[in-house]
Amino acid sequence: MLLFRRKHIPRLLSAILSCQSLVSAFNTNCNSNYASYYGQNSARNQKSLGEYCKDSTEDLIVLAFMNGFPNILLNFANACETTFPDSALLHCPTIAQDIKFCQSKGKAVILSMGGASGAYGFSSDADGANFADTVWNMFFKGSSDQRPFDDAVLDGIDLDIEGGSPTGYASFIKKLRSHYSKDSDKQYYIAAAPQCPFPDAYLGSTLNTAWFDMVFVQFYNNYCGLNAYPGWFNFDEWDKWAKTNSINKDVRVFIGAPGSPSAASTGYVDGPALAKVFKSVRSQYSSLGGIMTWDVSQSRTSGLAKDIRTMLDNGGSCGNNTTTSPAPTYEVSDKVVITHQNYQDSS
C-alpha cells in the first residue's frame, strides 16, 4: 500500500485530474483528441447521439450536416425527422438533450456546414456576415423563434465545403467570432474539413484568410490518403500551412480517416496501420491535434474507434505549436479530388 502525506494530496489530485482530462475531455492544446462525425447513418445502424457519449471514446462530435444555407436545411438521417410547423426546418429535441448530455461528459459538439451534396454558398461577403448572425441566434446564445436544438448551445461550427465558390466564408467566420467574443463563459471553435490535396479546392483561400482552431483533413478518397503512406501521404504540407500560412499559428491538424472499409472509396487502413502513421506524425509535427473519423457509426461498428482511443492515449501530450517542420512543395493540380461520402438515410 502507498501512503501519501496530507500536503501532497492536492498535488496528487491535480495530477490525476490532468490525466483524466487528457483522455476524456476535448482540449485543442492536446494531440490526443478524437473527433468523429455523427448524423448521416452511413453504417445503417446509427444510434442516438447520447449513446455514443456514454463512454470516453470520442472527445468531439461533429453533427452532419447543415447541407443547405443561407436558406437553412438540416439532415441528420434517422436521428431527426420532425420539422417545425409549416416549415422544412428540422426540430430535433432528442438531439438537443443529447448535446447537453455529451457536453456534461466533457465533450464538444459542433455543427458541420456543407457536405458532399446540398444547396449552399454565399453570393457576397455581406451574405456571409449576415448568415453568421442567423447561426448565432439559432444554434448558439442568440435568440430565434426557431431553434433546431432548442436551448442547447453548440460549441462551434465546422466548414465541410465541397462545392461552389469561396465567397463569403471568411466574412462569415469573422462575424461569428465577433459573437463568440461576447461570451467569455464558454469556449467556441471554428473548424474546417478540407480534402488532403493541398491547397484545398474550395477552402484554400479561406484557410489562409480566416481564423481556424482546427482542420480535419480528409486523408481518404484521394491520392494523398492514408493508404498512400508514406509516399503521397502529405501531412507535412498541412503542418507547413499551419506554421506559415494559417492566421492561427496554434491551429491543430487532425488526421481524417475512414471509420471502416465501407466508409470511403479509398483510404481506409486498419488499426495497426493507422497507429503506425499516427506515431510517425506525432513524433514529427507539433500541429497534430488528433484523429477524425467519418463517421461514428462506421468506426464504432468496425472497432476502429476503440483502437484509435488506445493509440491516442498512448503518449499523448499537450502544448502549443512551437516547432517548425520542413515540407516539400510540388504540384498537385493534375490529381483527382473526390469528396466526403454524404449518406442521407432516413430509415
Automatic annotation (TrEMBL):
According to its UniProt record, the EC number is 3.2.1.14
Question: Which GO cellular component terms are attached?
Answer: extracellular region
Q: What is the reaction catalyzed?
A: Random endo-hydrolysis of N-acetyl-beta-D-glucosaminide (1->4)-beta-linkages in chitin and chitodextrins
Q: Which Pfam families match?
A: Glyco_hydro_18 (PF00704)
> Which InterPro entries is this protein grouped with?
Cts1-like, GH, Glyco_hydro18_cat, Glyco_hydro_18_chit_AS, Glycosyl_Hydrlase18_Chitinase
Signal sequence segment: 1-25
Alphabetically, the GO molecular function entries are: endochitinase activity
Q: What's a single GO BP term from this record?
A: chitin catabolic process
Give residue ranges for domain GH18: 32-315
Q: Which domain of life is it from?
A: Eukaryota
Keyword annotations for this protein? Carbohydrate metabolism, Chitin degradation, Glycosidase, Hydrolase, Polysaccharide degradation, Signal
Similarity comment text for this entry:
Belongs to the glycosyl hydrolase 18 family.
What the entry lists under PANTHER family is as follows: ENDOCHITINASE
Indicate what this protein is called per its UniProt record.
chitinase
Q: Which organism is it from?
A: Coemansia erecta
Q: What is the lineage of its organism?
A: Eukaryota, Fungi, Fungi incertae sedis, Zoopagomycota, Kickxellomycotina
Gene designation? CHT2_6
